[in-house]
Design brief:
Layout (H helix, E strand, L loop, with lengths): L2 E6 L3 H16 L3 E2 L8 E6 L4 H13 L11 E6 L7 H6 L5 E3 L4 H11 L15 E5 L1 E2 L10 H5 L3 E2 L2 H13 L4 E5 L16 H9 L6 E5 L8 H9 L6 E3 L7 H7 L5 H14 L4 E8 L6 H14 L3 E6 L17 H24 L5 E10 L2 E5 L5 E4 L9 E9 L4 E5 L5
Parallel strand pairs: 1-2, 1-3, 3-4, 4-5, 6-9, 9-10, 11-12, 12-13, 16-18
Antiparallel strand pairs: 7-8, 14-15, 14-17, 15-16, 17-18
Length: about 425
């Protein structure tokens, strides 16, 4: 029987590609193995959104070179954002790679894998379905953020028709998923290129009543395009989790302009206020880039002040790194590395304090948790507002919605016990 090893890093879109690739390969008769040394086919799903991610990809890819000297070498496929449309230079740099595929090119992967095992003698059992499944609803992006390489690699926005998404949601739910997360580089732009221009709110309604589906999430949103219609729909539909991934990137208008973000700090602040006015219990997470070209200490202080004021539930902060081919790469990278590290630490320290205070407010409260897995002797899952919760209990709780009373609160996770009075 042929075997495969799959390695993936990066965004949830890559994670969704990895899930679909695994399902497809196992359907063709490939069995999963935990190490590349044991595989007949090695698939790398890659990310280059930061220099650190690209370095990891190159390191992983370089480590596979020696496997090609074996008597029966594995086939190596590289797909994802590491692969540009014209990858001749990449092929020359890594001549031992058998196939380079563009992001989300699962059809290309299927065609290549079929050549290796066109008529599998034995079909392997499918992997255990995830409790929470990632479902892409569009690929690419029409925004031109000056720092972002994703659009250069994934192309313009392309929405998947509503009927296809409904069918995929039904399929993953039938396979055991209780929750789906609708994915896109900018989900608020969903449907603009489809006949009739259905939007994300319409899509949420289309999948909401899927039998067996308990929760719906979506990410990532763009502050310039989120509508009141979407906010009202999240407030109305009980299966849609009141959690928003809403990147601000910077708390200064001049920096936002250089980033090509097309909104102001005042717009972002007002958007957060509108969400909280309609959904008081909503949680909001954001992304921040520190050390963008030209970011002064005063401009960075504006970002810190905005985060202190808004008290968001989570902040994913990254130090700016130039991405080749992006407009920002032509700007002087004039914030020293050590200063970027300091600014990142300032925000991480602030957010740890804020997140800790928000979590502490949940002590003694009972929250609904969708149980996903058992980890280190405890069951773990997430609340509707995306808080990670652990509890100890005998039996199999995977895939169940359970009430948990919070007994310990940290900035990044909560611990509780089953609340039998609410069960």
């Amino acid at each position: 029987m042929s075997s495969y090893h799959l390695w993936s890093i990066g965004c949830q879109m890559n994670a969704a590609d990895a899930r679909q690739a695994a399902e497809m390969l196992e359907g063709l008769g490939f069995a999963p193995v935990s190490t590349p040394e044991a595989a007949d086919l090695i698939v790398l799903i890659t990310c280059v959104v930061r220099q650190s991610a690209e370095d990891r990809v190159i390191g992983r890819l370089s480590s596979l070179k020696s496997l090609k000297r074996r008597r029966h070498p594995p086939a190596i496929v590289v797909m994802g954002c590491f692969v540009p449309a014209d990858h001749e230079l990449l092929a020359a740099q890594f001549p031992y790679v058998d196939r380079f595929l563009l992001p989300s090119d699962l059809c290309g992967l299927r065609a290549f894998a079929t050549m290796l095992a066109p008529q599998p003698a034995t079909r392997v059992a499918a992997s255990v379905a995830p409790v929470s499944a990632l479902v892409p609803i569009m690929h690419g992006c029409d925004h031109h953020c000056t720092y972002c390489i994703v659009r250069l690699r994934r192309g313009p926005g392309r929405s998947i028709p509503v009927a296809e998404i409904v069918a995929e949601v039904q399929r993953v739910v039938a396979g055991g998923a209780r929750e789906v997360t609708l994915l896109g580089q900018n989900v608020d732009a969903y449907g603009a290129d489809l006949p009739g221009a259905p939007d994300l709110a319409d899509l949420l309604r289309a999948i909401h009543d899927t039998p067996g589906l308990a929760r719906i999430r979506f990410l990532t949103s763009h502050p310039a395009e989120m509508t009141d219609k979407l906010i009202a729909t999240v407030a109305e539909l009980p299966k849609v989790c009141p959690h928003f991934e809403l990147p601000v990137q910077a708390g200064d208008d001049e920096v936002l302009k250089r980033m090509g973000r097309h909104y102001t700090v005042a717009h972002y602040r007002t958007l957060v206020e509108r969400i909280r006015a309609q959904i008081p219990a909503a949680s909001i997470a954001t992304d921040v880039i520190v050390g963008f070209p030209g970011e002064s200490e005063a401009q960075f202080a504006g970002t810190v002040q905005l985060l202190r004021e808004l008290r968001l539930d989570a902040v994913h902060v990254a130090a700016y790194s130039p991405r080749p081919g992006t407009p920002a790469a032509r700007l002087p990278d004039d914030v020293p590395a050590e200063e970027k590290a300091r600014r990142r630490q300032v925000i991480e320290t602030l957010q740890e304090e804020i997140s800790g205070e928000l979590s502490a407010a949940l002590l003694g409260q009972t929250v609904e948790v969708l149980v996903e897995e058992r980890r280190r002797g405890r069951w773990g899952g997430r609340t509707r507002t995306n808080k990670l919760v652990f509890f100890a209990a005998e039996g199999d709780w995977r895939g169940r919605l359970v009430p948990v009373r919070i007994t310990w609160a940290g900035p990044w996770s909560l611990i509780g016990e089953l609340d039998t009075t609410s069960a």
